[in-house]
Amino acid sequence: MIASHPRWFYAGLTFMAAGYVAMLALAPYQADLLLKIGYFPFIGVLGAIIANTSGTGGGVVFVPVFNLLREGGIYAITPAQVVAASFLIQSFGMSMGALRWTARVHEHRGAELEDRGTPVRTRDYWTVIGAVALLSLPTMLLTQRFGQFDQHQVLMALKSFSIILGSVLIASAWLVNRNVPERTGLARIDLIILLLAAIPGGFITALFSVGIGEFVALYLFIRHYPILMATGTACVLSALHVLSGAIWHIDVGHVPWDVVVLAAPGAALGGFLARPIALWLGALRLKTLDGFWIIGSSIFLLLASR
């Protein structure tokens, strides 16, 4: 028996649909260009599935596609537009994922599930989200408006660090946590470390549209928290940040609306499909794939940005 979703879940879907209709009605885009990049909904599905199964960013999926658009003379998209497009597309994909994972918390509390797994306490779930967002959201918004940094150097440092984290995740999944029960409650030391990562996570998210979700998901996975806790909180935090950060990109006119109009529905679909895929994979396989994805995508970005 499938548990019914709470009312706020459908309210969230309604809000997303209204936002997309408003974008179609008000945003400037070229109909002829939409035909040339008609494959973008499929790119949106792929990126959102990756982002919402792991809780980390799927933005690297778009990088080679944007490069092809630019090099083929189809769409001369700038680096600022790439980041803006990622913020807007993730506003649909990560929001859908956040709704789906948070509804799962509701189901765990109120229904018997065949794949229940390790229970997640609602208080722990929202404590992580609220505490991290309290520091990371203001950091992201201030960085967007006032930060002037060498994005290339920041990207190099971030992805080098991500390779280390991805390697630690794989090693911990197979060598340390494989036969150990998952944690059932949030430890104080883990909350403290997440708070320490909140400010750099907000800073990184402002520059690249991903960062805070990656930090939270990887750390909670390494510390052997359940998929629902690690991926769910990361998706909600990512959604909160991209929704808030998208406002600035719209205001300054960075958004390539043609790309967003096509990719957003695919991202929403990918966000919807991600949760059952993640639960089907299970903790060990998901952590392994997540670790290899982080390592592989980081190496790709390091090589592509040279």
What does this structure look like?
- The chain is mainly alpha-helical and 306 residues long.
- It contains eleven helices and no strands.
- The longest helix has 48 residues, at 257-304.
- The protein is globular.
- Mean pLDDT is 85; it is low at 110-115.
Spell the H/E element sequence: HHHHHHHHHHH
Strand content: under 5%
Overall strand count: 0
Taking all residues together, what is the mean pLDDT? Answer: 85
Spans of 5+ residues with little confidence (pLDDT < 50)? 110-115
The helix content, as a percent range, equals over 70%
The tally of helices reads 11
Largest sheet, in brief, is: none
Rg from Cα: 18 Å
Structure class:
mainly alpha
Q: Between the first and last Cα atoms, what is the distance in angstroms?
A: 52 Å
Task: Identify the overall geometry.
Answer: globular
